[in-house]
Amino acid sequence: MDYDVLVVGGGIIGCSVAYEMSKYNLNIALIEKHYDIADDISFINTSVVYDGSETSDTVMASLEKIGSELIEEACSKFKVTYKKIGSLRLGDNDEDILNLQDMYKRAKIRGIDKVHLISQEEALNIEPNLNIPFKKALYSENVAIITPYDLAIAYGEVAADNGVNVRFEEEVLNISNISKGFKVTTNKNKFTCRVVINTIAKEVYIDENIDKLSEENSIIKFSKNMSYYLVDDNIDKALEKIVVKVLDDNTFVLNMPNISGGSILGIKNPRAVNIDDGIEYANMLVPGIHKSNVSNIFSDAYKKDLMVIDDTCMDKGYIRVTGTHYGKITLAPAIAKTISDAIALNLKATEKKDFIDRRREFYRFRDMTMDERNEIISLDKRYGNIICLCNQVTEGEIVDSIRRPLGARTLQGIKRRTGAALGNCHGSFCVRKMVNILAREMDKKPTEIVEDSKDSKVWIGRIKEFDEV
Ligand SMILES: Cc1cc2nc3c(=O)[nH]c(=O)nc-3n(C[C@H](O)[C@H](O)[C@H](O)COP(=O)(O)OP(=O)(O)OC[C@H]3O[C@@H](n4cnc5c(N)ncnc54)[C@H](O)[C@@H]3O)c2cc1C
Asked: Does ligand 1 come within 6 angstroms of the Cβ of 14?
């Protein structure tokens, strides 16, 4: 067999599974079709780490609780930004308040501490900018925000450092049974393995003996009834907590602060709302939002609880983890741990004695003291060469982001890892320099460098003979 375990998909689920499985003496590969990990839904989401108090589903609640604890631990271990900002759910009428009371009781039964049912006055002490009618609130101190792609990259890096073979730009086309395992066919290779953990939405496993969900049934279609408004931080009365307010039977509004400033306003309505309606709803929770504050809008289907952990073929070695659950980032480490432990047991795998549960060191010039800056520059002069002026990102950090395990190979890859080109000038000063560094490090021509995918060249070609190009 080529591999003991093959993980399909490099989102937060695939990366956390690869990390958990890399603790065992197994030969493991992860296959991702894009140039980078966490390049799909794990990159675009609202980044909230739930605590298990909001859902009525007991199994999901327990996984969320475990997941949120594992995420806090991983963020501290791997230097991923994590802010426990807390959440407030506001209740105005009798029905809302009954719902909050139910959630509160459930939290107590589930052993989730630091969840409180509080009065309007207490809520206003916690979030003085609240400017919407409500009588009571459910306050959870546990709810946090993170950068999920940073967490996925951290899991991926540690997995790679512990021997997982991460294969990019390879698309799994189908998976079929062979004696005592599977044949996994990609657009480039054919692999054999004992176990497959499939984390992609599309079902690619063909097993005639098993009546699996047909492709048609497994993709459930929803209308895009959830709109998200990315709002800048120029709002006078911005809210610092995650705040949820039900407006009527069909509509609720959410405020979710971003880790890097600004916030996302989410509006759930049976229909996709237009920008004027959206801003009107958003203003009900956070007054003072104008169109000019909105930098991006996206819509998605609100699919509350869809989560599939299909282990019907577990005895054969095939597990599928998919679904569009609103808290899948939170669930990811808990699901990964549960299935990895079960697979290791099935394969009678032993734990690695030399497992390195650490991420290679990296430096953020903008967060360093003057002494620390001088020290790092004396060790490597490239840390003294600022490439991105807005976010104070140095050449040293960019080179490190390329040379790390699973290093950046695209402009987006550098931006996500370092924050370069994500400042106010949107890269007008630094993108040219970043392209040249990437080309130099990858031994490519600058015209071969891509933004994020195969057909996304940054520079189309040469128009003049400049020395630098
Ligand atoms: C708008 C929105 C907001 C959300 N907010 C939150 C939140 O606040 N908190 C929370 O906990 N969760 C949240 N979620 C849920 C969460 O973000 C996603 O469910 C989660 O990121 C999905 O991770 P994944 O690994 O399952 O999938 P993905 O991130 O989609 O990863 C799948 C990977 O598989 C790769 N792939 C696909 N097909 C193939 C193939 N054939 N071969 C090889 N590779 C392949 C893809 O390129 C991709 O990288 C939100 C989701 C959405 C849509």
From this structure: yes
What is the residue whose two structure tokens read 């400049």?
466
Beta strands in 258-346 (DSSP E): 263-268, 294-300, 307-310, 318-323
Domain edges within the chain: 3-43+148-219+306-346, 83-143+221-300, 365-448
Phi, psi angle pair for 13, to nearest 5°: -70, -50
Report yes or no: 425 and 436 within 8 Å, Cβ to Cβ: no
The topology under which CATH files domain 3-43+148-219+306-346 is FAD/NAD(P)-binding domain (3.50.50)
Closest atom of ligand 1 to CA, residue 330 = 11
Q: Is 3 in the pocket of ligand 1 (CB under 6 A)?
A: no
More confident residue, 465 or 337: 337
Angle of helix 148-161 versus helix 58-78 axis, rounded to 10: 70
Instruction: Tell which residue, 108, 96, 132, 62, has the closest CA to residue 335.
Output: 62
Q: Two tokens at 433?
A: 């320099």
Residue-wise pLDDT for 6-61, tens only, equals 999 999 999 999 999 999 999 999 999 999 999 887 777 889 999 999 888 888 89
Q: How far is CA 438 from CA 187, 317, 423, 435, in A?
A: 26, 40, 19, 5
Q: How many CB atoms lie within 10 A of CB 248?
A: 7
